[in-house]
From TrEMBL:
This is Creatininase family protein. Signal peptide: none annotated. Pfam families: Creatininase (PF02633). Its cofactor is Zn(2+). The lineage of its organism: Archaea, Thermoproteota, Thermoprotei, Thermoproteales, Thermoproteaceae. One of its GO terms (molecular function) is metal ion binding. Keywords: Hydrolase, Metal-binding, Zinc.
Amino acid sequence: MRWAELTWPDFERVDKKVAVLPVGVIEAHGPHLPLGTDALMALYVAEKAAEEAGVLLLPPIWYGSTYVLEKFPGTISISGETLYRLYKEVFMEVARNGVRYLVVVNGHGGNIDALKMAAKDVAKSTYLNIVLVNWWIDLAKEARRKVLETPEGHAAEDETSEVMAAYPHLVKEIPRDADEWAEAKYAVYGARVYAMMYKKAVQGYPSRASREKGEAILKAAVEELKSLLEDLKKDVLPVSVK
């Protein structure tokens, strides 16, 4: 059920217990993937799982924080402070509309801090339970281990395979020299290191990508997210108590 496509009388009648919110970013993803990759992939996984589980799907939040890749044309980066306020207000409105469990399917690492802060603050003042799923980290771990040959990264083998499977028409031909890999011994912040690590807006080995790998990852990711949504419908939280 797509939240945005319901009339208000329809919305009043539907089961609002569980809802899913995809979030991403608009940023460079190498010369071969679309700028909206992170949002598109979060939407793909969220949409499929929400449909199969029969829960509400909110419209995606396309914008995020991506200071590292600001130098590349087409990138749109929102400050962490603005994102925090946006996430918080959306969460508050979701709670006001009667949702008890909100699953945020995040597709971009730069959003994590703002999402966590907003979720914690909203949880203090409402009855909304917010589950943050960083889908490329939390879902399909075993499938990734089985099919990937190179480290996961940015516009790398993993992400390129996933877009090949979900949106093949949006993938451009991968240049022969697209592979790019750099490692920092410590957490380093600054324009110099960003320039060193992202010369082509790639971090990894897209040359090893394939649609088949992406299909295996996405099948597992959707199934795992669907299982979470079905558990929440039964008031089962993803928490193990020993």
